[in-house]
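User
Take a look at the entry that follows and flag anything odd:
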Amino acid sequence: MSEHAPDGRRGTGPSAPGEPGPRRTGDGFGRVLVAVYGIFALAASARAGVQLVRDWHEAPLAYGLSALAAVVYVVATVALARGGPGRVVARRVAWVAVGVELVGVLAVGALSLVDPEAFPRATVWSDFGSGYGYVPLVLPFVGLWWLWRTRAAPDSSLGPAPDPAPDPEEAA
């Protein structure tokens, strides 16, 4: 089901430049971001598939982490593509997936430098993604920034929150 603005355009972004409002995570710059995530989802999935089938016994930790990275990239791609106003679940899934990606690339990157014997073979996240031009290190920061930038603005049209009703037990 597609969402349409009052003037019939697809999407629900701001109607005027500079006007605050929620935006779909897969529109505008988000399309480029979703494409990059999609490329990484395909690359990590293909790499993990080959590694798991052919060479699992050589480096089970590294290849298991490659499979985890592939799943994270697939989930992030789908969630970013579907996220937008009214798509609360997709946005939450995107926040979690990109957050897991950030923790994963930082943890695996640091561990692969501190204990290289634990990673006899490289993963997508080894050495902070050096085998992929450090894009795996930069990508989650860009993803989190985009999710933050496309968030719904607080609804200020309701005015200040009313004071809660006094507790009858406190009045006595």
